Amino acid sequence: MRENTRPNVVRRAKVAAAIGLALIALAEVGLRLAEPHLPEPAQWPSAEAAAKLSQIGELSATGEIDVIFVGSSVVAEGIDPLAYNDSSGRIAYNAALSAASMRATELWVRDVVLQETDPSIVVIGVSGRDLNDNGISQTEFYERLTNSPGYIDRRKPANPLEHVESWFLQHSALVRLRPILRDPAAIVVAQNPGQPGSEDEPDIGAFGSDVSATSGPYTDFGQWRMAWLARHLNDYSIGNSETEALGRLIETLIAHDIEVLLVNMPVTADYVETLPDGRRDMQELDLILEDIASAAGVEYLDASAQYEKTDFRDPAHLTPEASSMFARRIANEARVAGEPSEDL
Amino acid sequence: MLFNSFEFVFFLPLVLAGHWLLRGRWRTGLLLVASYLFYGWWDPRFLGLIALSTLIDYVVALGIGSSDVETRRRLLLGVSLVANLGILFAFKYSGFFVESAVELLESLGLEANPPFLRIVLPVGISFYTFQTISYTFDVFRRRIEPSRDLLTFGLYVAYFPQLVAGPIERARELLPQLEAERRFPDRQKILSGLVLIAMGLFKKVAIADVMAPIVNIAFAAPGNQSSLSLLVGVYAFALQIYGDFSGYTDVARGTSRLFGIELMRNFEQPYLSRNITEFWRTWHISLSNWLHDYLYIPLGGNRKGSTRTYVNLMIVMVLGGLWHGAAWTFVIWGFLHGAFLAIHRMIGNYSPRGYQGRFGARRDWLPTLVTFNLVCFAWIFFRAPQISSAVDYVRGLFSFTAGLPPTSWMTLLVPAMLIVLVIDIAQRNSNDHEVILTWRPLAQGFAYAVFFLGVLVFSGGPAVPFIYFQF
User: Fold this and answer.
1) B434 contacts chain A (CB < 8 A)
2) Of B188, B386, B445, the CB nearest to A17
3) Would residue B292 show up in a list of annotated catalytic residues for this protein?
4) Distance CA A141, CA A52 (A)
5) SS3 category, A204
6) How many angstroms separate the CA of residue A324 from the nearest CA in chain B?
7) Residue B152 · residue B118 · CB < 8 Å
8) What is the distance between the alpha carbons of residues A12 and B430, in angstroms, rounded to a whole number?
9) Running DSSP on this structure, what letter comes out for residue B330?
10) Most CB within 10 Å of its CB: which of A170, B82, B265, B400?
C-alpha cells in the first residue's frame, strides 16, 4: 500500500461508502418495482418433493407414519413401502427424493420431514453417487432445495446469521430474488412450460411409492454410463461434505430417539465398473459407511452386491419386483424388539 | 474454518479484540491458540502433525545454528527433510505411488492386491511443510538465526491467515514481525485491510464459485460438448482458480494486516502476463520463489549450460506439479509448463526483469492473449480428474464441433471476465493492490456496491472450500 500518495483516503472512502449504500438501496427499490413482472420461484425443488410433502402431511394428520425411507432415487425406486408395510405390519413412507444428495437429504429430513412426522425408524439408503462431493446433479438439487421458498419458510435457522438471512428473505427483494439474479436466463426458462422448474405431475403412488419404474433387465448401459459420468459420478470423490452430512443426519435422528438403519444400496457390476476406481471405490464406500454406523451405534446393512443384473431397470435402480423383495429384506433388518415382523 | 464461513464472522473480531487488548507473549500465545483453533475446527486430529513439524524444525534448527561442524549440520538438515517430506509423503503421496505400482504390475499381467487404505489428506500440509523446510534451510545456509522462542516459532508455522493456503512465507520476513511488539494499525491500514478482505470475498463468492458449475459441466462430459462450450469451460476454470486462490490470498493479507502483520503478495495479475516466464513470476509467487530458491538453484539453476538449464526447468516444474496433487494429471500440467518455460528461454525472449510494469499498450494484447491461452491449455490437465478426461477435452476442443455454449454460461462468464480485467489492469498500472482507495468517491462507491451485491446475490448456500485447501 502506498499511503503517502493517499492524503484523503479515509475521507474519500467515507463518501464512497455512502455512495455505495445509496446504490445498493437503488438496486433494492428497482428490483421491488420489477418483482411483480418476474416469474415466481417454484415452492419446492421438484414436483416430487411437493407431492410427497403433501402426502406426508395427510398421513401424519392421522399419526400413521412409523417408518421413513430416505435417500435419492436409488431409494425412491429401490425400497417399495407397500411391500414393507405388508411385511412388517408397520406404516412406512418413502420420502426419498430423486437427485438428492446426502446434504440435501439431511436438510429435507431435518427441516421438513421430521417437522411433519414422528417416526420410530428411519432407513437411510446410500449409494456412492449420493456421497460424491462433486456431483453436478447433486449440487443442483441441493441448491434448488436450499433456495426454494417452501424450504426457506420451514428451515430452522442454525445460527444467528441464518436468522438475519431469514429476516432479509422476508424484507429484501435483493435477497429474495437471488436465484433469478444469479441466472437471468432462468427467467426465460421458468416461463416455458416443460422446462425444469415447471410443476409437472409426478409419478407418486401411495406411501410415496414409485409408480413410474420400468422392469428390467436394462440394455442401454453405454448411454446410462455416459449420463451418470456426466452428471452424477463426475469427479467422483467421497469422504467430505456429503459424508459429513450423513453423520450429522444420523446424529439428528438419534437425538430424536429414532432408530436408524443405514443401508448400502444394491447396485450392479456395471455401476461398479463406472466408478473411476471400481471395486476399490466400493470398498472405500463400505469402509466409510461401516465407520459412520459403528461410531453412531446404528445398524448397518451392506446390500450393495446382493442382487443380480436382472433385478435392475438400470445399473443403479432396482425393478419394481426387486424393490418389493428388498423392502421385505429391510423389514426384517429393521425389526424392533417387541415388534414381530414376517420373516422372509 | 473457512474465511467465507459463519464461524469466521465471529472468530476474527474476537481474536482481533483479544490480540489488541493483550501485550507481548500473551498476544503471541493468543494468536497461536487461535491458529490451532482455526485449523482444528476442520479436524483436530491433525493438529498433532503441525505440532510435530514445529517441534522437529525448532529443535533441528537450534542444533544447526549452534554447530560449526559441517557433517553434523548436514545430518540435522537431513533429519528435518526426512521428517517433513516423510509426513508429506505418507499423507499425500503414498496412495498415489501404491496405485501407480499396482497399475504398472497389472499392465505387466501380474496381480497385485494391496490392502485398501483410506488416508485423509490434512488440509494445508503442503504449505506448512514447505514453510518449515524453508526455515531450516535458511538456518543451514546461515541466512537467518534460529528462533529461540518456541511460542513465536510455533506461530510462524501455524499463523492462521496463511496456514492452509499460503502465501508460503519466509522466516526472515514473517518471524521478525511476529517477534516485534506491534502497534495498532492506523485508519488507512485498517481500511486497506478491509478493502482486501472485501475484494477477496467477492473474487471467491461472486467469481470463483459462480464459475464452478460451468466448469463442472464442461469437464464432466467433454465428449458431449461443442468445441466452443469446451473453450468457455476452460476459460471459466481459469477464472475460477484465479478468483479462488487470489481471493483467498487477498482475505489472508487483509486479515493479517488488521493484526499489524504484512504478508507477501502472492499474485501480480498473472493473466496480464506477456510471456510464460512473466506468468510464473506473477502466479503463486511464494511457491515459485520457493521452488527457485530451494530446488532450481541447488540443481544448478542456469549456471551449468543451456541443456542442463532446460532439464532443471523441467524437473522443477514437474515437481511443482506434483506438489499440487498426487496425480499424473498434475505431473503433465507441470511438464507442460516446464516445456513452455524451456521453449520461451530457447527462443531468446527471456526477460530477467520481474513483471513488466504497465499494461494496456496495443502491443501488449496479442502476447498476453497467446500466453493466457497456453496457460488455459495446461489448466485442462490440472482440472481434469484423469488423463483420459483431459485427452477427451483436448480432442473435443480441437474437433471444432459446432454448437454454442448455453446462454447462462455467457451471461456469467463475460461480466466476470470484465470485472477481473478491470481490477487487474487497475492494480497492475498502479502497482497497488488497494488501488480502489485512490479512485474518486463515485467510482469507489460503485466498486463497493458491486462487491456487496456480488457477495449477497451469489452467497446463500454452505461455504464452498477454497480449491487450494486440497493441496
Assistant:
1) yes
2) B445
3) no
4) 16
5) strand
6) 34
7) no
8) 18
9) H
10) B265
Put simply, whether A276 touches B (Cβ < 8 Å) is yes
* A313: amino acid identity, one letter: R
- The Cα-based distances of B440 to A2, B93, B193, B420 in angstroms read 16, 51, 19, 19
SS3 label, residue B167 = coil
CA angle B330, B336, B340 (to 5 degrees): 145
Burial of B142 by CB count in 10 Å (0-12 exposed, 13-18 middle, 19+ buried)? exposed
- Show which of residues 392-411 on chain B sit within 8 Å of chain A, judged by CB atoms: 406-408, 411
Q: The sheet that has A259-264: what strands, in order across it?
A: A92-94, A67-70, A121-126, A259-264, A299-302
Q: What is the pLDDT of residues A190-201, one digit of tens each?
A: 555 444 444 455
Residue A111 · residue A117 · CB < 8 Å: no
Residue-wise DSSP of A191-254: TSTTSTTS-PPP-B-GGG-B--PPPS----HHHHHHHHHHHTSTT---SSHHHHHHHHHHHHHH
- Nine-digit cell at A35? 418483482
The residues that bridge with A68 in the sheet, in sequence order, are A93, A122
pTM: 0.79
Rounded CA gap, B100 and B85, in Å? 19
- Pairing between strand A121-126 and A299-302? unpaired
Tell me which of B324, B337, B344, B433 is the catalytic residue. Answer: B324
C-alpha cell at A184: 437471468
**Across B108-112, B326-330, B338-342, B351-355, which has the greatest mean pLDDT?**
B338-342
Query: pLDDT, tens digit, for every residue of B332-361?
Result: 999 999 999 999 988 875 555 545 567 777
Q: Exposed e or buried b for every residue in B344-367, given b needs 16+ CB within 10 A? A: bbeeeeeeeeebbeebeeeeeeee
Q: Is A341 on the interface with B (CB under 8 A)?
A: no
Q: How far is A331 from chain B (nearest CA, A)?
A: 32
Local confidence band at A344 (pLDDT 50, 70, 90 cut-offs): very low
